[in-house]
Amino acid sequence: MSLTLITPPAAEPINLADMKAHLRVTHSDEDALITGLIIAAVRAIEARCGIAMMAQQWRLRLDEMPRCLTLPIGPVSAIDAINVTDIAGTDHSIGAGGYAFAPGKPGRLRADTPWPQAALGGITIDFTAGFDGAIPAPLLQAIKMLCGAFYEQRESTSEIRRYAIPESFNALIAPYWEMRL
Question: For residue 112, what are the CA distances in angstroms to 70, 106, 118, 156?
Fold first, then answer.
């Protein structure tokens, strides 16, 4: 199984002006740094929680389709395309009648009709993930906290240090963090 980002989000959930206000930065000397920290904080939270905050398109590649598949990133709003390359190398598009889809987090997909026997890595599922509408406020606050911790701990040092991330950070992301066994 492999997961590839096809279309990244068009924007970040928090803009530069809002983050600068949170950090109490009034100059523009560090705009590039703060923009990079926003992106790093968002991607770190998305990776830990298995979520996509802003709409983005992903491709999941499988060797075979299980009876019911839980998509690895959510909330999933749409299945954009499903293609199967069979063992003879022929491509087959699976239409909406060939599967059932339950949106959300986790998004789930089930084959409702027999699919061709796939070659290794022959099943590709393109889907759109991201919150429809507003990002939940706890996630926005978590982005600000993590970005603030990155901003304060950016200097290099000879001793190994852990980032001083507030304890409340985990409480903010806990409802969105799916534990995997």
Answer: 15, 19, 16, 55
